């Protein structure tokens, strides 16, 4: 991990994110966030896998624009399932989900990729593509939107330097430690300046110092307008930041004040 | 062709390595079938062109002798030349008639004392609407034993045979295309299964289905083009070898047919044609499979 001073790093991140990295239009219109309404709205949402039991029962909440929430709750409470609904990997078994003002159930399938590109996701299991280098994995988030690797190479390298992987930009995931892979996954999630950032245990494989750095990065993004939801078990980390908690217990959510 | 995107390492897929070989065999078969069909079509064109507007009258040898046969020939010629539909009637001399038998009976037999019918080559006027049956009846009345051959029966049999050969060639072409497409479909399905995780990641970070499909279709295109060129090269070599081996063999004029630029272009189009079919098959398979996801 390189010991780069945080303020310098933040300015580098701004450079990366404000670059015209994509050639596609930003996607479907987003009346909700323009009007200041919720970026995400769940209304009585339930979810089950196949014919199994309900993982989420009656979940209702809203994430306002530019908000920062922790998603807390015990293991098995359904945090990852809730995130799956948010990053459009599953549809709810009942209830209504609105993201960027679009009712997901009635949004044509062809418009979902554009919505996904406005959402940055840090997966718990990183989900890096094994045969691609760290740089290529991060750049992929921009390439799928139409950018060419040559156009974004320098920006992506800057981002990787910021997360402390400047020496490993050409390393394949298999040669990186869990913490390093997690940082690549974080870089990929934030490189496109998403409107909504979802992170599933983003600090699970890193030490406390790196965990704090990652949360500072998320805060920086949040200040620039990104709505952030971080699912975590790390009570110490949650109590270090003054952000409200969306607490998930037995398949239902409640909004709690900062710890 | 653009450089292959490396998101999915399709180049290393064991399941798709057989595709160029299958395509090469299919293009080889298709090229031979197409060449055969074009050869027959050209020969048929030659036959119909040569025989359109012509008839042949056979005057059987008169038992009374050569002078009587010559008299019969004159009668027939007079009758034919008097018909307003007929532009010209020309009698072949006996030597020419015997020469026609040479390929069938040999030089010795043709020269022997075998009675040979005398032939009259008849050319019709352009657009003439002659009733061949009525003319045949008039000829038989004037010269007993005279026969009129308007070539229709012979030509219709040959045309039927040629049509059948062309149909078979078309079927071979379609089967080759279907087999090539199936090979690509199976390879694409295997690729989708092998790269399921990477495809899922691409999907979740916002890749469109077409972004993923393009990678499969480029791969299929390149593999099929490579296989197609090899198969086509082998087919052309085989055709040239067959031309050398059988060029001197008389078979309904097939040996007289020469391939022109159009024929060679049609053959050459098989390789890119196979590549386009492979590309379409890969795209269709991938898009159909991805459409089942959210």
Keywords:
heterodimer, A: 259 residues, alpha/beta, Rossmann fold, six-stranded mixed beta sheet, four-stranded antiparallel beta sheet, 9 helices, 34% helix, 22% strand, globular, disordered N terminus, B: 294 residues, alpha+beta, 2 domains, 4 strands
What is this entry, summarized?
The complex is a heterodimer of chains A (259) and B (294). Chain A is α/β, with parallel strands linked by helices.
Rg of chain A, nearest Å = 18 Å
Strand percentage of chain B: 5-15%
CATH class of chain A: Alpha Beta
Tell me the domain tally of chain A: 1
User: Mean pLDDT of chain A, rounded to whole units?
Assistant: 84
Average pLDDT figure of chain B:
86
DSSP helix count of chain A? 9
Number of helices of chain B: 9
Largest sheet descriptor of chain B: 4 strands, antiparallel
Distance between the termini of chain A: 29 Å
Domain module tally of chain B: 2
What spatial form of chain B do the alpha-carbon principal axes imply? elongated
For the biggest β-sheet of chain A, the strand order reads 6-7-8-3-9-10
- Main sheet: strands, sense, barrel of chain A: 6 strands, mixed
What can you see in these coordinates?
- The complex is a heterodimer of chains A (259) and B (294).
- With 259 residues, chain A is an alpha/beta fold.
- Chain A is 34% helix and 22% strand.
- Chain A has one domain (6-19, 30-101, 112-248): Rossmann fold (3-Layer(aba) Sandwich), CATH 3.40.50.300.
- Chain A is built from nine helices and ten strands.
- In chain A, the strands form two sheets. Chain A has a six-stranded mixed beta sheet, sandwiched between helices.
- Chain A starts with 5 loop residues before the first helix and ends with a strand.
- A four-stranded antiparallel beta sheet of chain B has the order 2-3-1-4, covered by helices on one side.
- With 294 residues, chain B is α+β, with helices and mostly antiparallel strands.
- In chain B, α7 packs antiparallel against α9.
- Chain B folds into two domains: 10-48 and 155-290, no CATH class; 61-145, no CATH class.
- The model of chain B is unreliable at 1-5 (pLDDT under 50).
């Amino acid at each position: 991990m390189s010991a780069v001073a945080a303020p310098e790093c933040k300015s580098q991140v701004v450079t990366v994110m404000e670059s015209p990295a994509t050639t596609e239009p930003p996607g479907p219109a987003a009346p909700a966030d323009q009007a200041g309404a919720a970026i995400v709205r769940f209304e009585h949402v339930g979810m089950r896998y196949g014919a199994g039991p309900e993982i989420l029962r009656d979940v209702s909440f809203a994430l306002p624009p530019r908000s920062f929430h922790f998603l807390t709750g015990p293991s098995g409470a359904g945090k990852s399932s809730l995130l799956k609904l948010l990053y459009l990997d599953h549809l709810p078994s009942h209830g209504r989900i609105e993201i960027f003002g679009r009712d997901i159930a009635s949004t044509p399938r062809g418009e979902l990729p554009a919505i996904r590109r406005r959402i940055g996701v840090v997966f718990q299991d990183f989900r890096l593509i094994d045969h691609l280098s760290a740089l290529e994995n991060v750049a992929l988030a921009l390439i799928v939107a139409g950018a060419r690797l040559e156009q974004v190479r320098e920006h992506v390298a800057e981002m990787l330097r910021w997360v402390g992987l400047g020496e490993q930009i050409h390393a394949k995931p298999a040669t990186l430690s869990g913490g390093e892979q997690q940082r690549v996954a974080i870089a990929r999630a934030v490189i496109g300046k998403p409107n909504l950032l979802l992170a599933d245990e983003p600090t699970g494989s890193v030490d406390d110092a790196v965990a704090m750095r990652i949360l500072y990065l998320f805060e920086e993004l949040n200040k620039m307008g990104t709505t952030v939801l971080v699912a975590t078990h790390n009570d110490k980390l949650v109590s270090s930041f003054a952000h409200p908690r969306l607490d998930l217990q037995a398949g239902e959510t409640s909004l709690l004040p900062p710890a | 062709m653009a450089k292959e995107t490396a998101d999915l390492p399709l180049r290393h897929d064991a399941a798709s390595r057989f595709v160029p070989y299958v395509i090469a065999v299919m293009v080889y078969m298709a090229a031979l079938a197409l060449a055969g069909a074009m050869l027959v079509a050209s020969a048929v064109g030659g036959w119909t062109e040569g025989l359109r507007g012509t008839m042949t009258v056979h005057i059987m040898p008169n038992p009374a002798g050569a002078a009587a046969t010559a008299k019969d020939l004159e009668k027939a010629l007079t009758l034919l030349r008097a018909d307003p539909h007929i532009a010209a009637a020309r009698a072949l001399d006996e030597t020419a008639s015997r020469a026609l038998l040479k390929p069938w009976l040999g030089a010795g037999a043709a020269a022997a004392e075998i009675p040979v019918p005398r032939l009259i080559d008849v050319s019709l006027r352009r657009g003439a609407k002659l009733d061949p049956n009525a003319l045949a009846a008039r000829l038989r009345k004037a010269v007993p034993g005279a026969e009129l051959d308007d070539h229709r029966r012979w030509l219709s049999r040959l045309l039927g045979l040629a049509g059948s050969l062309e149909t078979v060639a078309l079927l071979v072409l379609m089967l080759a295309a279907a087999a090539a497409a199936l090979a690509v479909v199976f390879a694409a399905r295997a690729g989708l299964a092998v790269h399921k995780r990477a495809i899922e990641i691409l999907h979740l970070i916002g890749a469109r289905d077409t972004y993923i499909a393009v990678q499969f279709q480029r791969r299929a295109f390149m593999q099929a083009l490579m296989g197609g060129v090899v198969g086509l090269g082998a087919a052309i070599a085989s055709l040239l070898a067959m031309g050398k081996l059988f060029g001197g063999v008389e078979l309904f004029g097939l040996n007289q047919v020469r391939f022109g630029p159009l024929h060679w272009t049609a053959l050459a189009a098989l390789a890119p044609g196979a590549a386009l079919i492979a590309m379409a098959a890969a795209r269709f398979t991938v898009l159909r499979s991805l459409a089942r996801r959210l």
